[in-house]
Amino acid sequence: MDMTTAAATVIVGVLSLIGTALGSWGGLKLMSYRIEQLEKKVEKHNNYAERIPIVEEQIKVINHRLEDLEKGVS
Questions:
Q1: CA 4/CA 9 separation, integer angstroms
Q2: How far apart are CA 56 and CA 67, in angstroms?
Q3: Long-range pairs for 23-28 at CB < 8 Å and ≥24 separation?
Q4: pLDDT digits (tens, 9 = 90+) for 27-66
Q5: Contacts for 26-33 with beta carbons within 8 Å, 24 or more apart?
Q6: CA neighbours within 13 Å on the CB side: how many for 50?
């Protein structure tokens, strides 16, 4: 193996390493972005989950008031 072949091999190896590192870094950035978006969706969902029991209770109160009003009209 002569010097140019060895140098070419080293250059190809270094370029491959750089390409792999850049690809991994880009993949990590994409994964981080997607996790952040999922966290936002989960937070939004949790807000609804906390509010649903309150809304259900309010509906019960409204239904009782309607029944009382209907009894008063008849």
A1: 8
A2: 17
A3: none
A4: 999 999 999 999 999 998 888 888 899 999 999 999 999 9
A5: none
A6: 6
